[in-house]
Write a structure and sequence with these properties.
Blueprint: E1 2-3, H1 9-12, E2 19-24, E3 29-38, E4 41-44, H2 51-56, H3 59-83, H4 93-99, E5 114-117, E6 121-126
Antiparallel strand pairs: 1-6, 2-3, 2-6, 3-4, 4-5
């Protein structure tokens, strides 16, 4: 394990997207994927869809990303509709589990989004991948 110190924007930025363990001052531990630091909070397991994240991004960049997503979604929807035309609308649970990016889990193994106040974090460690 590698200790990330001090816990601030400049030291955490290179490790965004990596698994970390935050040891809190009360003795509890939080494990997750390092997202970002926003308003003196460390965000774990962030997918970038929160309202605060969208509001803080640059308008032009956000518009370009949305346009790309729309184009991609349209082409994917056309291909999916053509493929699933003769299939049953019910999804087999085994196939759904195989399609998951985390086999054996229906969602991220680290759980949902968590916002940890920076002043309550005692240690932050980078976990081996």
């Amino acid at each position: 394990m590698y200790r990330i110190y001090p816990v601030d924007q400049t030291t955490c930025t290179p490790f965004q997207g990596f698994p970390v363990m935050a040891m809190m001052k009360d003795g509890s531990r939080q494990i997750g994927i390092l997202g970002r630091i926003d308003n003196s909070e460390l965000i774990l397991n962030d997918d970038g869809t929160s309202a605060e994240f969208e509001a803080s991004s640059v308008k032009g960049k956000t518009a370009r990303i949305r346009t790309r997503r729309r184009r991609k979604t349209r082409s994917v929807n056309k291909r999916t509709a053509a493929f699933t035309a003769g299939l049953s609308p019910e999804i087999d649970p085994e196939l759904q589990e195989q399609a998951s990016p985390w086999p054996g889990y229906r969602q991220s193994p680290f759980g949902s989004r968590a916002a940890l106040p920076i002043d309550s974090i005692d240690y932050l460690f980078l976990l081996p991948v």
